[in-house]
UniProtKB/TrEMBL annotation:
Residues 379-399 are annotated as: Disordered. Keywords: Membrane, Transmembrane, Transmembrane helix. It comes from Naasia lichenicola. It comes from the Bacteria. The keyword Transmembrane helix applies. The chain crosses the membrane at residues 20-41, 96-118, 130-157, 177-204, 216-243, 263-283, 311-329, 356-372. This is DUF2029 domain-containing protein.
Length: 399
């Protein structure tokens, strides 16, 4: 495998082939979004799930009726997601054609965000190929169907939040505590579970009082912008909600008589999830793979301990796998490409198995950590072996 990597490292793609691949991948991205958007809107009810609840609340935000937005405890969406659904509510989007168009436009924006993030991650490694890899990542995410599926399920946050987490991880690795925490705050404004991305802050090169202060300022500012107006305008009752425990979850297996899952239990689940993400962050701090591994760890443990396990809950895992794929291609790591493709296929193909798929994803996360640590050690060893030998002054040389 090392010989193959060496051979690939010397390969330079002809310009015409690069153009052909760019056009082909862009076509796959657009066609994938168009097909999945059409399928999502072609059922008996073309509109998204929970639209009656989310659309009305989003329209309240856009029309200034802020005091009535969070009066229903069943509303478990953040202000940014409600604003997202307030747009079609105000515009009066309806019918298969209307919703297909809306899904396609929204999906294209998310796919574009995937491409931008992939470009940011891969450009320092291989600048010439970063645009092509970015388009490939967008094509893979679009063709997988998870972007359109999360939108049609009423929860585009499942696509947006992991991208914000990985952007925050990238900012943290570059030493920007304020912006990394602000992005986590923005993610929490989409849905409360966005706060589970805080372990990426452990990727900061230096963690001291100044970094903690900047992170606190950035995170609190983003949260204040998102939730402050509604806390001031009227009641926020979302924390009075309790989830049913579904049959396919690990919780149902362990607690067959459990009736519901309240917010205190959500807090306990969150602590366990954050602890897992923090452990992975500390183990992989020196590796670029931490950008996707920490979100993957958080999402996998969240899935393993969740009472609901809806199909769209697996969307963040697929997108983490897509960014793993982009990074692996940039580094020409066939082993990492395999990890990425297995992650995507397990998350997309084994959703119906419930907690079993989640357990497999936890195992894949562990494998990813091992691969990342080995690659990091190999890179350091290569750098040290290629360093020039120290020059000995002439007068100190032995004749």
């Amino acid at each position: 495998m090392t010989d193959l990597r060496v051979a690939l490292s010397g390969y330079r793609m002809p310009p015409r082939l690069r153009i052909v691949l760019t056009v082909l991948l862009a076509f796959i991205a657009v066609a994938g979004l168009a097909a999945t958007s059409f399928v999502a809107a072609s059922g008996t009810s073309p509109g998204p799930a929970d639209y009656d609840l989310f659309g009305a609340a989003g329209a309240d935000i856009l029309t200034g009726n802020w005091g009535e937005v969070f009066v229903d405890p069943a509303l478990q969406a953040g202000p940014w997601q409600l604003l997202f659904w307030g747009i079609p509510a105000v515009l009066g989007v309806q019918g298969a054609a209307g919703w297909t168009s809306f899904y396609l436009i929204a999906g294209a924006l998310i796919a574009g965000a995937v491409a931008l993030l992939a470009h940011r991650i891969t450009r320092p490694i291989i600048p010439s190929a970063a645009p092509l890899i970015a388009i490939a990542a967008a094509a893979l995410a679009s063709a997988s169907g998870v972007i359109s599926a999360s939108i049609a399920a009423g929860h585009p946050a499942q696509s947006v939040i992991p991208l914000l987490w990985m952007s925050a991880a990238l900012s943290a690795r570059r030493g920007s505590a304020f912006w990394a925490a602000a992005l986590i705050g923005v993610a929490t404004g989409w849905e409360i579970w966005g706060i589970l991305g805080v372990p990426v802050l452990l990727l900061l090169p230096r963690i001291g009082p100044r970094a903690v202060g900047r992170a606190a300022l950035g995170g609190l500012a983003a949260l204040a912008v998102a939730y402050g107006p509604f806390l001031l305008a009227g009641p926020v009752t979302m924390f009075g909600f309790a989830w049913p425990i579904y049959d396919g979850s690990l919780l149902h297996l362990l607690l067959p008589d459990g009736a519901s899952f309240s917010w205190p239990l959500r807090a306990a689940q969150g602590l366990l999830t954050v602890a897992a993400g923090a452990a992975v962050a500390l183990w992989t701090r020196g590796s670029r793979d931490a950008i996707w591994l920490v979100p993957l760890a958080v999402c996998s443990v969240r899935l393993l301990t969740d009472p609901v396990l809806a199909g769209y809950y697996f969307t963040p895992v697929v997108l983490a796998g897509v960014l793993c794929f982009a990074l692996a291609v940039a580094r020409r790591s066939l082993l990492s490409v395999a990890v990425a493709l297995v992650t995507i296929n397990v998350a997309n193909g084994l959703q119906s198995t419930g907690w079993i798929a989640a357990a497999v994803l936890v195992a894949i996360t562990a494998v990813g950590v091992i691969v990342a640590r080995r690659a990091d050690r190999a890179s350091r060893s290569s750098d040290s072996s290629s360093a020039p030998a120290p020059v000995v002054p002439t007068e100190q040389r032995v004749p």
